[in-house]
Sequence to fold (197 residues):
Amino acid sequence: MKLIVGLGNPGLLYNNTRHNVGFRYIDILANYLNAPSFKEKFNGMFTKININGEEVILLKPLSYMNLSGEVVLEFSNYYKIKSTDILIIHDDLDMKVAKIKLKENGSSGGHNGIKNIILNLKTEEFKRLKIGISKDKNIDTADYVLGKFSKIDLEELDNINKIVINIIKDYLKLPFNDLMSKYNNNNNWRIKHEETK
Fold:
């Protein structure tokens, strides 16, 4: 069983904010995979699906970003999911909008949601799919991440929807090192995107 978690903040106030890019892609995945309706459990909204024989939970924690780890821990304990079978989708300030990077483990890189997951799971050994949101040095970081995406930024994110879907499909069948090799090279994105049309 795999646990795929999108990070964000609950409530209409935070819809389409930069910090909620994880929620965005969980919803896109659920829609693409025709997943059952989300249900609430352990302070998270989740749906469970079967993809090619693999049970997969899609999860959006409702605890607010800085306490995401509490919800992830509850789900991983209840469903007996190893930390190495957890994939976190989250925003990254240090990458351009819509840039993608897969990471196998490591520190939080200053991301409070990831920091809390490490604190609760007591390990850095979980996988990440980072989505770039860029940054603006003229705006306070807290204000920036809680700001809304521009129309142009949303179009850029729409352009990688199919790539994110393909990453998740491949995540369920490829060794993670192979997955990183396949998708962490920006030059291949356009080719891969064209192949999925």
User: Anything to note?
Assistant: The beta strands are 2-6, 39-41, 44-51, 54-61, 86-92, 100-103, 127-132.
